[in-house]
Amino acid sequence: MSTEQPKQPILKKITRGLTVGSVITGSTFFHGPPVLALGFTKFFKKSRKVDETNIQITNSWLSVNNWLIDHVLPHLEWDISIDESLDLNMQGRYLMTCNHQSWVDTTVNQYFGLTRMPLTRFFTKWELIFIPFVGQAFKILGFPMMKRHSKEQIAKNPELKHRDMEEARKACEQLLSQPFTLLNYLEGTRFTQEKHDQQKSPYTNLLKPKAGGLALALNILGDKIDALVDMTIVYPDGVPGYGEFWLGDVSRIAVNLRKIDIPDWVKGGNYEDDAEYREHFQQWVDEIWTEKDQLISRMKQKYQSHAQIPEPQQTTN
């Protein structure tokens, strides 16, 4: 984290770390096997009841993490702002975009969404499927898993590009049988100043957005979603690592949710093969990203302004 936090007693931090590690590990071994076992039955017969049960188990899995946040990290303050036009509910169908700074971002999303929105899936790397329990659960629960091929690989075998998109298309279509929240980190990777400089990003607080995944999701789901939601996460005291978060070194997290209006022309376009549509779509995403960049600056300024207010001095008679 970029801003030094008040140091905690070392024994208290060790105790917290052991508690969090033990509970998360135990919860994973408790919830993971049932999800996998039920998921394997889908190879023989697809069942909506199985899907609903798996989601219930997964929500129970996530609720353990939320319990830890509320009871083991008691000094964490949340500043959550939701657009008045955004009517969220557990039966909705949502696409969501979000800035990406840390692994903590997904934990923040899950903490916020557990009681407000359907289970959040997100576009993720295929390689994560090899993580025990977690990776297989991603696949079973319908997370769109993308295989990233290099330009050299695609040049040798152009079919790789279309194969990956077709797999993502199938994953998106499978979501339509149930309420869902599909999250896309448009930056494609976590923000660092080094990456920002290498990209020569035109934004102050963001990397350049990669619009292809969002275009695909809107092409498939555009007429069937209730809202396109943009989540913005700011860590006023500096971006934390995953370990720092669970050790209690994060004191404040700010979250803003706003509704993004989807123009009619966006739905049904061919991003891959229509150059004119692709350019128009990228311009639209750039406008969203510019507004988001300005929002992040305002959110940061809010906390900087508060920090500059001097503490009232005590006087003695």
TrEMBL record:
CDD domains: LPLAT_LCLAT1-like (cd07990). Pfam families: Acyltransferase. Residues 94-236 form the Phospholipid/glycerol acyltransferase domain. One of its GO terms (molecular function) is acyltransferase activity. SMART domains: PlsC. Coiled coil: none annotated. This is Phospholipid/glycerol acyltransferase domain-containing protein.
